[in-house]
Amino acid sequence: VLFSNFLACCSWLVTYPVAPKLIMHLCNEDMAQAAHLMASISVLDAIVEFFANPVCGWLADRHGRKPVWLGCLCLSALANILMAVGTQYFGLFAVYAATIIAGPSRSLVTLAFAIIEDLTVSHKDPGATQSQGQSARFGLPVAAMGAAMIVAPGSGGVLFSRFGLTAPFWAAAAIDFVAILWAMPLMTESLVADGPSKPNTEGWTIPLMAESLVADGASKPTGEGIGSRLAAILRSVCQLLNSRASFVLIFSYFCLLLSEGVHSTVMLFAQVRFAWTPLDTGMFMSFVGVLVVLMSGPVLSAVMPLFGEHRVVSVALVLGIVHNLGFGLASKGWQMYAVMFTTSLELTANPTLRAIISQRGAAERDERGQFQGGLGAVAAIARVCGSAGFQQLFSTFGVGPRAPAGAHAWLAPGVSFFAAAAVTFVSWVSFEWGMVSARHDERNSCRQVAVLPTAVGAVDCEAVDLPAGILDHPRATVASLTR
């Protein structure tokens, strides 16, 4: 699964350094217009991902992870072929069409998280070690993406310099086909780890009526049509908000993802301030990939038992603030490398915070894909707002007519990073508030559990979902339910 995820990420990232150059070519080298167009393309991509993530998660719950995985890879290959061929004849229309077709392929990361949950012990009653282990495992898909970042962007820059604008897109399509050929015989269906997947006896439908979404946790399809897919998206998102602490943590995660939307401006920013070429951008992305692999893999596994999830996320978010400020103030290209290296621990914030939220959410076998799809929908909303907002700031106040002049004009292209630092600060404050709320909820639960020893004989273990005989040991019961 991780190797297939690595190949899929290579397919996305090999075209990453070339995309702005292609857009500028279609805009007759107008930087401001290219920034506006990239903002609109990013928003369209995020909107498609918003609808595709929960639906793909639901389909993966009902029909298995593997068929959805293969379908997403096929769509990605088709989109890359369209970008390679269509832009020569249809211009921007081909770019928008390819963006829509490739949207569902972004669900591969969501499916990877769902597969990891399939293969991880249920976190309905997790101990500390299990919780920390899950956080480390949630870093594996991010590490796979980091490994792809080491190889793919630099390769894309080399292909562009040797063979032209369309070569990276042909390479991306070839990588997609290799991923399909790899996953088809070798990838196993992870749902069988918990038991056989539910057969689909009602067709490819999702409940449309609101009553069917909340009545006894029903998941049997009762509706039809496109509207039923919208109901699935609503259900996935609402499933996340099961308490005040969860809501605040989701908001913190949303702000973190919102601040990551500033990455959509990095290539244009570096081109304006440092005159970087696609090859320079590809080399920088490869350097970032090395750090992502280290932070999301061995470093995250090492620091989690030592400091715990709370401290890791808190420190990572503070470093994220420093990271964005450093990028905005960088005046030389080498300073981008220095800032990225010294604040690289901020890369652990996303997988660790996502693991914390998942531990507080539903973990039933037939809902994991949908739950992760809900988180994917939150990420897509953040991408819509972040990409549009930061690209608009860059095009208007960074390189547009409203950019400041005079001695401080060199700071103008970094305006998006200054805004991202402010958003990351909000994410940090929200995270601390959410963790305080979570501890408050745990204390209240402990007070309620404290009355159990006086009613040992009156409690039906099955009714409260406890193992038989556990109430013979009241202290163990209190410790178990408090966790």
UniProtKB/TrEMBL annotation:
The keyword Metal-binding does not apply. The chain crosses the membrane at residues 68-87, 93-117, 138-161, 167-188, 245-270, 282-300, 312-330, 410-431. Keywords: Membrane, Transmembrane, Transmembrane helix. Coiled coil: none annotated. It holds the Pfam family MFS_1. It is a multi-pass membrane protein. InterPro entries: MFS (IPR011701), MFS_trans_sf (IPR036259). This is Major facilitator superfamily (MFS) profile domain-containing protein. The lineage of its organism: Eukaryota, Sar, Alveolata, Dinophyceae, Suessiales.
